[in-house]
Amino acid sequence: MATLCSTSNASETANYSSIYDIEINGLNGKPLSLSAYKDKYILFVNVASKCGFTSQYKELQELYDSYKDTLVVIGVPCNQFGNQEPGNAKDIESFCEINYGVTFPITEKIDVKDANQHPLYEWLTQKRKNRVANSKVKWNFQKYLIAPTGEFVDYYFSMTSPLSSKIIKHLK
Which one of 5, 51, 78, 96 is the catalytic residue? Predict the structure, then answer.
């Protein structure tokens, strides 16, 4: 498990915030409280319904079902990669339920990079916020794992299966 890096840079420390303080809405438009998941791992995944990796929804649901006592998977729809999530909230919800039986939380559609990057992804991708690592979201189905303490653990590119030992080793 990743540990928090110590830093002597006061401005870097000042920018740090808790993942649990970030506000984001669910797909239904109502606030999704990340603090409700304290004491559980959180796996954030930027999802899209028309992507070559879309079949990972099945593995994400399997992971969620297998570890739901210690893990929550949160799907984060994004249309920034090849316009592969063009639908509205109802389209996304129907697609996930009908095709993959998704029961884990899904947020509103957001930007995960560039000028309109949502604060959640600012935290996930900026070391000055998460105190562990900088990263760039390269494509749909990139994954970010957060420890039950709210600490950043690691991130995994799209090709990493949700059932990979790289992820599961943290959950056991």
Answer: 51
